[in-house]
Amino acid sequence: MDTHFQTTLDDVSKRLKQGYYDYIVVGSGMGGGILARTLVEGNPKHCPEHCPIDCPKDCSVDCPGDCPHRRHVLLIEWGGWFLTTHCLNDPAPRWNPLIGDGDGPPVDNFKLFGVAKKPVKRRSPETSTFTEYAGGPMHHVGGRSTVWGLFTPAIDKDQAKKYFPRKVYNYLFDNQLGGYSHAYRLLSNNPNATISSPYPVEQPAKKIIERLNEVVQPKYGWDDFGPSPMAAEFPLGQIGSEMFTITMGGYSTVSWMMRHVVSQSKLLTILSGIKVVAVDRTAIDQHPNRVANLIVSDHLGREHVLDTGGATVILSAGTIDTAAIALRSGLRTGGWGGNKLVSIGLMDHEIKGIPLEMLVDKDDESDVISQLKGRALRLQNWVSLETGAEKRCLLNVIINAPSPLGRAHDESLQVLYIDDDGTLLDKKRFEKKLEMRAGERKFRRVSIMVIFGFYAELQDENKVVDETTVQITSETFNGCKFERKMKRIASDILRALRPPIETDYSEGMRISDFGEVAHEVGTMRMGQDRDTGVVDENLCVYEWGNLFVCDLSVFPVSPSANPSLTLAALAQRLGAHLWDSPKLPQVVVPLQPSSSDKV
Q: Which pTM value belongs to this model?
């Protein structure tokens, strides 16, 4: 597979020296993959009417990929084509209650992520001990986009307004610019989708949303509940409406890249199996600095120097690997413009959940949960558990589905079991009762997860030491302070969904701490200037003219919500910005060795 699709290092090196590539993207995950797509698809289909160069005659009809007027992208990926994970997100996500014991298919990408990701050690400076870190990169084409949970909400407006640069905030939320909706249309493969109305909601689901908005929302003064956006194209309502088309299913960056490789696109070159070790600046003193070379290593560990040919370089290797590349490149302490914020600030956010399981009567038409008939539903709302608008947490109510964390059926979770009449049961009695009633085919198991996602500010004491080790000194999590309130909210939600039940279940509920969830951010943060950030609002590294970053490392806060949609929007915004920026002229200079940073 890799042999068939992979171009050679020698071929790429020759093209680079000739100035063939306009952009070099390092990493193929959610940031790098979407950025590469945005850059390639930014090419016009035809040359301009007054083309400034000598193009072939047929350029006005169908401009070929090797036309020098087109812009070309080189994407470098450390790993290879790992199709076993690529296939995970292909099937249309749905809930089939007829499979197995009624729990539906085992959709648990989190376990697969734990197996396939590169191990990263977490060092505690207080005890000098090492434990496994929950996050870390996946070294194959598509990166972590191949195993993520597809849950893709926008982040809270007040959090974005406080922590993100003003122009970025405006792009994400402005009705005309529509950064979030533009990104969601890509992730859902639906040109008409919007983040406020991500997909059609069936009548049973509408009744549940109405019930929550009638009963729970007024009590707390929140906004209305609504469907949780999912990065997936769902099956068509009428099978015959689109003949010979296959639903995309869950989004990953792999499908688009594979189409271009198989069709031998001249606009995109994927160099897989190559690790980028460092970026090297020109030996000539310039302001701003310019990347002249990439130091890379092949699968045998042999290092090579690649002349960038004046191309713009974008690091999209992930929060840990991008920081490691920056350290090895001297971006932290280099006398020509080092930045002390490089590699520090590493932070994940806190997620807590309350799992419930109950029996429902399949034939009870007055029961809104029963009317779902085993189908899945994911709802969300922004709620305040403490003073401060920017501190809102994301509340999710997930019914009959794996949680966005992929841990809905984790044996370690402390589940509250409820009979159809509202009586509390222990797990053994619940399972026995379900087994006894299996012959009646009258009752169905329903799983409900109430999840609270909290935000977290970056902690400068936390840092990337190297590509294999992170140091976690400080984690300021506040969720434990609100356990009583979270239980009360979950109990109110349960009573709203099952009106005959008046019991207050809050005392019997147990909160599960999901801890770190592989949403690590912050090691190359955005800031208004180089005293507050590593990159500017356009993701350009301060003091550099052709070096950018596009992955979760640029986030200036760990938001309450899954950051994937925001990263997709940032990648599209950066792609448009780069298209509007002229390519810097190529400068041929001798190699200037980098002084790597040690943290």
A: 0.90
